[in-house]
Design brief:
- The complex is a heterodimer.
- By secondary structure, chain A is mainly α.
- Chain A is built from eleven helices and no strands.
- By secondary structure, chain B is α/β, with parallel strands linked by helices.
- Chain B contains eight helices and seven strands; from the N terminus they run H-E-E-H-E-H-H-E-H-E-H-E-H-E-H.
- A seven-stranded mixed beta sheet of chain B has the order 1-7-6-2-5-3-4, with helices on both faces.
- Classes of the chains: A mainly alpha, B alpha/beta.
- The interface between A and B is medium-sized, with 24 and 17 residues.
């Protein structure tokens, strides 16, 4: 008994316990759906839930061990996302070496996140890699398809590595603030929760499409339902996992919902342009890794900078 | 040697391929479960052989025999040792064989021993990610042993990750699609036509990003 009490001694552990409780509820629901109305949708749904068990377990292990392990895990996610992106887009044979440089940016960026070197972290990809990659391509002397190559590589590096590395930065920032993995868990759990909430509200009440050309399944009902639910859950858990008050947490939850939605449809637009339905096949029932982290690509930087604005070194409180 | 071979694949090839490439296999159930059989694949990279061998179950490893050009793999002693003992290749001479000698004889013997041959009918790795005309050796082989199933396998992505003349392994996702097994049809040209057609069908099932 004391061991169990000891395990749930921090808000992060309690929150993870809560996530597993939700997962069990979701498993029971999908099992019931499969029993009552078996079919393709039900099978797809239970495949998704099984994948959730895997993803949440891996994430839990990564977050509850040491911060080094967590950061390496987050870097690996960024690597898989970048690899998936490079495999999907048209590339030039001559740019093989350039792609390797882009991959090498990952360890540097995540190291900077780990040591919370805020200034360097913020400029390494948007300034240094941004200038270096086109210069290197130019020095190699291949001008045919130059703009396409530079455009797609820079954007890919930004959306995968730069955006996603904010998760690791959030981890080191959270540690500085005395909340350990709390803010990271807040961000990731709410981003994914919002995806599920949007999906569920949309399935139940969705009628008015927001942007049918990009994402025919996204409806206003789903979006607003997700936003409100996420903001409510954020208000409940924010004060425990982060330094934010309940009110500020609700705002953060709403921001995460909006950013998550935008990330989702941005990756959808990208996939539509490439003519693929899913970005990959890594996660059964979900698609590729980009399909799973699409919302996080937007919500991670947005939430990080929101939190940093209020609790960073130059925050209003410290002035 | 089997231990060394198993260790090489289990501890080195599989983890490296899993992280750097993340091979996605479709139609795995269509691959041969026992020999004699022939796996026929398109050839873009040195990684082709390793990828095919790594996706088969480890206990099948002793049966897998990639057929490779003698002039390329037997250049140095070290390379020959590695190719024969660790990869388990069957070296054959390309072209210029002496009269009256069947260059496919070692392959036929391997099939008679119940082994699974891995063949690349494109001959050399050629232009990466482009399917070139197949050589007819495989048809002559099934003509000699008509009961042998031929399993077509289309691979995409490895030519981008490690093309000919490069030593820099750049991570790319890689797809492998296995098709239904083919059998001897009674004519060499007819068989080759069906095989080449089957490969094109398999290729068409994939999203292939332009690579120029």
């Amino acid at each position: 008994m004391t061991q169990i009490q000891q395990f749930f001694s921090t808000p992060v552990h309690i929150a993870i316990g809560g996530i597993y409780a939700l997962l069990i509820v979701a498993s029971v629901i999908t099992y019931t759906i499969r029993r009552v109305s078996p079919g393709e949708t039900a099978t797809e749904l239970s495949k998704r839930v099984v994948s959730w068990w895997w993803m949440i377990t891996v994430f839990t292990i990564a977050v509850l061990t040491t911060r080094v392990v967590s950061t390496i895990f987050l870097a690996l996610v960024a690597f898989l996302a970048l690899k998936e992106y490079f495999s999907l887009i048209p590339t030039r044979r001559v740019d093989r070496e350039i792609l390797m440089w882009a991959y090498l940016a990952i360890p540097v960026q995540f190291y900077l996140a780990h040591v919370h070197s805020f200034g360097l972290f913020m400029v390494f990809i948007p300034v240094w890699m941004f200038l270096f990659l086109p210069a290197r391509i130019t020095l190699a002397g291949h001008t045919e398809g130059f703009l396409r190559a530079v455009g797609t590589l820079s954007w890919g590096l930004m959306i995968t590595v730069f955006s996603l590395s904010h998760t690791a930065l959030l981890l080191s920032f959270g540690t500085k603030l005395g909340h350990a993995a709390g803010p990271l868990l807040f961000l990731v759990a709410l981003t994914q929760f919002n995806d599920v909430a949007q999906f569920t509200w949309g399935k139940l009440f969705g009628r008015h499409k927001i942007i049918p050309k990009v994402s025919p399944k996204k409806t206003w009902e789903g979006f607003i339902g997700g936003l409100v639910t996420t903001a409510c859950v954020a208000a409940l858990i924010g004060p425990y996992l982060t330094p934010m008050s309940a009110g500020l947490s609700a705002v953060a939850g709403a921001i995460i919902a909006i950013a998550g939605y935008l990330g989702d449809i941005t990756i959808s637009a990208c996939k539509r342009d490439l003519g693929v339905k899913d970005s990959g096949t890594l996660i059964p029932g979900h698609g590729g890794i980009l399909d799973r982290v699409d919302s996080l690509i937007y919500s991670a930087p947005v939430f990080y900078h929101f939190l940093h604005y209020f609790f960073g070194v130059w925050s209003p409180q410290s002035l | 040697m089997t231990v060394l071979r198993t260790a090489f694949f289990a501890l080195f090839v599989r983890p490296v391929l899993m992280i750097a490439l993340g091979t996605h296999v479709r139609g795995r159930e269509k691959l041969p479960v026992k020999g004699p059989a022939i796996i026929v694949a398109n050839h873009n990279s040195h990684l082709d052989t390793l990828t095919i061998m790594a996706m088969c179950p480890l206990r099948q490893l002793p049966l897998l025999r990639p057929v490779a050009a003698m002039d390329y793999f037997m250049r140095t002693k070290a390379m020959a040792w590695f190719a024969i003992n660790i990869i388990g290749i069957i070296p054959i001479s390309r072209g210029g064989h002496q009269q009256g000698e069947n260059p496919l004889q070692p392959c036929i013997e391997a099939l008679d021993r119940g082994e699974i041959l891995i063949l690349f009918p494109e001959g050399s790795r050629g232009e990466p990610e482009k399917l070139s005309q197949f050589k007819k050796g495989v048809a002559h082989l099934v003509k000699a042993r008509p009961e042998t199933p031929v399993h077509p396998l289309f691979i995409h992505g490895l030519g981008k990750a490690l093309p000919k003349d490069s030593f820099l392994l750049v991570p790319f996702n890689c797809d492998v699609v296995a098709g239904e097994a083919l059998f001897w049809t009674g004519s060499v040209d007819g068989f080759m036509e069906i095989l080449q057609g089957r490969m094109a069908e398999l290729a068409a099932t994939l999203h292939i990003a332009p690579w120029d």
